[in-house]
Amino acid sequence: MMRRFLLLAAVAGSFLSPVAFAQTTLVVVVNRSVPVERLDAAQATQIFLRQVTTWPDGTRVQPVDLPEGSPLRAEFYSRVTGRSPGQLRAYWARLAFTGMGLPPREVATVEEVRRFVRSTPGAIGYVDRSVNDPELKSVLELTR
Fold it and tell me: Which strands sit side by side in the sheet containing 136-143, from one edge to the other?
């Protein structure tokens, strides 16, 4: 009886998996003027944690975040930096307390991320790949 259930579950799962687990991509995007074509996760981490503040040409890096509680933000920081929302709060509280830095600018929606990155020299943000914008340069893709 148990074997029959497991076989049925496996067969049902194979039909559901393309729909239920379709792969999408998280994309780090920059303003077209940014003189970088590719970033790796370590570089993106340094940028979003404000450990790197200028691009190679000297332009100020301007990271933009989605609001805390956003699933895309949680996924971005978990996959790129390896940090949870609580660890990030502690990191920024420590830096703010010591006067060493403030977190990236926060906007409410993915559309606002796109708008900010498009219109701001040196800007960098993250969006879901389904939000295709030819005016932005993709520098890092993470398949879920």
Answer: 105-106, 62-65, 123-128, 25-31, 136-143
